[in-house]
Hints:
The chain is an alpha+beta fold. It has six helices and 13 strands. The chain has a seven-stranded mixed β-barrel with strand order 1-3-4-5-9-10-13.
Amino acid sequence: MRGRRLCALLSVALIPHVARAQFRDxxxxxxxxxxxxxxRSEIGAFMVMPPDLFAGLIPSGMKLHTLxxxxxxxxxxxxxxxxxxxxxxxxxxxxxxxxxxxxxxEDGRPRPxxxxxxxxxxxxxxxxxxxxxxxxxxxxxxxxxxxxxSDSAFDRRLHAIMPSxxxxxxxxxxxGRDGTWRVRLVISGTTVEGSCRPYGASxxxxxxxxxxxxxxxxxxxxxxxxxxxxxxxxxKRSCHGSWRVVGDGVLAQAFRRGTxxxxxxxxxxxxxxxxxxxxx
Length: 280
């Protein structure tokens, strides 16, 4: 399912010369670059969320990718649509929390980090619509509603370029003795807690060559900024686990009013390079 691949794009240190061999060069002129390697765990929820929560946040020329559309190509989504036909026009979304051994900003020193991302999926209404030539990933792109890290200095730099990104007040991802990952994010109005105990063999989601995607910030009109993500090596493990969400913030409302397609699941082993641009 292309939605899952795009979701994971939007989340043991790698030998540097191997990493460089997998990626195409990102376009020059980025306001900020960063890389993510040594992903130990990405606990994610693939779900649909009510579109009225995002009115006025969709960039011009784009539309939400809906459960109805995804169900045409994915059996898990089809089961959800049969059980909940009232969700047919709900938006495909991902929420995830990632723990990695190596997070590198610009040419700085790699360091461990925890990152959380929340994104919806978009398609172009008009395939001929003008887009910045540095954007990648074809017609399927993402709406980045949240991107938080445990690196406060990075958060401030990213927020200065993409003001829609907010700092988290608390984030964690830890592995218990019983093999269960437990994750937590606290932002204004919302607390999300999840657990995931992986089982079974991992499933390959992408190959050894990087695949690219573009994430746009929320807001009507032409986006002032965007982020290009290039990633490879994604593997998914099924989990025994659950999510717990409290609060009255938009993320909490989206969880409560939406429903899971699949998750929690653990996506591991991937490597990513990203660049944030100001639009021409």
